[in-house]
Amino acid sequence: MPRPIKVRKVEFFPKSTYFIPLGKQKCKIDEVNLKVEELEAIRLKDIDGLSQEECAQKMAISRQTFQNIIDSARKKIAIALTEGKAININGGNYTTKHCKFKCLDCGNVYEIKYEQDRRSCPECGSSNVACDKGRKFCHRWCKKSE
């Protein structure tokens, strides 16, 4: 039986999450799914220029796991670019250190996992949640769509 996947820490969430080659229609194109933690690995290593060890520490994973994630991300991006596929950024096993949320009904305090938990409490399902720092929304990406 394989080990369970460890949740990776992610600090960056893109504004744009879908990229299509110019001149192609979304309904007629294959896509590659790039996980959020794969994008984070690319950002840390290739844009921020951190060492593999520093990247692994920031994401709270081993160096080997980081290497596996970045290899997967680079392969997916290369396939999309060479085969003219769309890139869809979503999903994965990640958490963020930016914000902890608190359910105002049951008192549960939890780290958000991006879209899933910022709208409702994972414990009781209540939508009466707020940033645990005392503000209703502490970051642009915490903001609820109303």
Strand order of the largest sheet: 2-4-3
How does the helix and strand content classify structurally? alpha/beta
Question: How many H/I helical runs?
Answer: 4
Helix and strand string, N-terminal first? EEEHHHEEEEHE
In what range is the share of β-strand residues?
15-25%
Could you tell me how far the N terminus lies from the C terminus, measured between alpha carbons in angstroms?
43 Å
The average pLDDT score comes to 83
Query: Main beta sheet: strand number and arrangement?
Result: 3 strands, mixed
Count of separate structural domains: 2
Poorly predicted regions are 135-146
Total strands: 8
* Anisotropy-based shape: globular
Helix content: 25-40%
Second-tier CATH architecture of the largest domain: Orthogonal Bundle
CATH class of the largest domain: Mainly Alpha
Output the radius of gyration: 17 Å
- CATH fold category name of the largest domain: Arc Repressor Mutant, subunit A
